[in-house]
C-alpha cells in the first residue's frame, strides 16, 4: 500500500504523521439462512433497502407449520388430561395400598403407568415447543440494523436444507463500517487496537479507531512484508457508503 504523505502539519489540532490509501468494507455481514424446509411465500425487502433489527425479511409458507402447530397443541391437551388422570389414579392406588387393600404389584403398576403418562406429557410439550421454534425459524429476521446487499431467493422457490443450509439473503451492518489497508512491520509495531484515527471519505473526515493490527503478512513490496490494518468508523446516516470505496486512513503522530 502506497503511503500518500509523511509530513508534519497541524490538522484539527493534531500533528499528522501518516496518511494511507485504504478501502471501505463492511464491519459485519452475514448470509442469513434457516434450518427448516419450505416454500418461500414472501420476500419483504429489496436489495439496497435499510432495515431495523427484528424486521421480518423473508417468510416461508406458513400453512404446513400452522397444521403442525394445531396437531401438536391437540396432542399436548390430550397428554395433559391423561397425565392428570394417571396422577389421580396413582393417589387412589397409594391410598388403597396404605389400607392394605392393594398388592405390591398393583401399586407398582400404578406408579409405572403414572410415570409413562408423565413422560408422554413431557414429550408432547417438547414437540409443541419444537414446532413453535420451527415457526420462528420459518420467518427470517434481521439480527441487527443493516442494509440488504443480496437476495438469493424469490417467492415460490423451495428451500431445502437437508445437507447444507441454503443462503437466503446477505445483510450488512450499517451502524459501523471499516477501512482496510496495510503497513510495514515497523509501522505495525507502533499501532494497537483502540488508537483514534481519522477516515477521509468523499471529501469529509470522520472519526474512527484502529480495530485490528495483523500478525501475518498480507503483501510484500521492496521494503519487505506488509501487515493488515483495519479501522472502524460510523458512516453518516444521510448517505449509503458502499464497500470498496476509496478512502484515506490518517494516523496522527503521538
TrEMBL record:
Q: Name one GO molecular function term.
A: efflux transmembrane transporter activity
Coiled-coil stretches noted in the UniProt entry, renumbered to this chain: 62-127
Q: State the superkingdom.
A: Bacteria
**Which SUPFAM superfamilies does the annotation name?**
HlyD-like secretion proteins
Cited Pfam families: BSH_RND
In terms of InterPro entries, this protein maps to:
MdtA-like_BSH (IPR058625), RND_pump_MFP (IPR006143)
Instruction: Tell me which residues make up the Multidrug resistance protein MdtA-like barrel-sandwich hybrid domain.
Output: 29-166
Q: Name one GO cellular component term.
A: efflux pump complex
Annotated membrane-spanning segments are none
Q: Which UniProt keywords apply?
A: Coiled coil, Signal
Q: List the signal peptide residues.
A: 1-17
Q: Which family does it belong to?
A: Belongs to the membrane fusion protein (MFP) (TC 8.A.1) family.
The protein's matches in NCBIfam families, at most eight in alphabetical order, are given as:
RND_mfp
Query: What is the protein name for this chain?
Result: Multidrug resistance protein MdtA-like barrel-sandwich hybrid domain-containing protein
Specify the taxonomic lineage.
Bacteria, Pseudomonadati, Pseudomonadota, Gammaproteobacteria, Chromatiales
Amino acid at each position: 500500500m502506497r503511503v500518500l504523505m509523511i509530513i508534519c502539519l497541524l490538522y484539527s489540532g493534531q500533528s499528522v504523521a501518516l496518511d494511507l490509501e485504504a478501502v471501505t468494507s463492511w464491519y459485519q455481514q452475514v448470509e442469513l439462512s434457516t434450518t427448516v424446509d419450505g416454500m418461500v411465500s414472501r420476500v419483504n425487502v429489496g436489495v439496497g433497502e435499510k432495515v431495523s433489527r427484528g424486521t421480518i425479511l423473508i417468510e416461508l409458507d406458513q400453512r404446513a407449520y400452522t397444521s403442525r402447530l394445531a396437531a401438536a397443541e391437540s396432542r399436548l391437551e390430550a397428554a395433559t388430561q391423561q397425565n392428570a388422570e394417571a396422577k389421580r389414579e396413582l393417589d387412589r392406588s397409594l391410598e388403597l395400598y396404605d389400607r392394605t387393600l392393594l398388592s405390591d404389584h398393583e401399586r407398582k403398576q400404578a406408579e409405572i403407568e403414572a410415570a409413562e403418562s408423565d413422560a408422554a406429557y413431557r414429550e408432547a410439550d417438547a414437540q409443541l415447543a419444537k414446532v413453535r421454534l420451527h415457526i420462528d425459524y420459518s420467518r427470517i429476521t434481521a439480527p441487527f440494523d443493516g442494509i440488504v446487499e443480496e437476495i438469493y431467493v424469490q417467492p415460490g422457490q423451495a428451500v431445502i436444507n437437508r445437507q447444507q443450509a441454503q443462503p437466503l439473503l446477505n445483510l450488512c451492518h450499517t451502524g459501523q463500517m471499516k477501512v482496510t489497508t496495510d503497513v510495514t512491520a515497523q509501522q505495525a509495531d507502533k499501532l494497537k487496537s483502540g488508537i483514534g484515527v481519522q477516515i477521509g471519505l468523499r471529501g469529509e473526515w470522520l472519526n474512527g479507531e484502529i480495530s485490528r493490527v495483523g500478525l501475518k503478512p498480507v503483501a510484500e513490496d521492496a521494503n519487505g512484508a506488509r501487515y493488515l490494518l483495519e479501522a472502524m468508523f460510523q458512516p453518516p446516516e444521510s448517505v449509503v457508503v458502499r464497500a470498496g470505496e476509496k478512502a484515506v486512513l490518517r494516523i496522527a503522530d503521538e
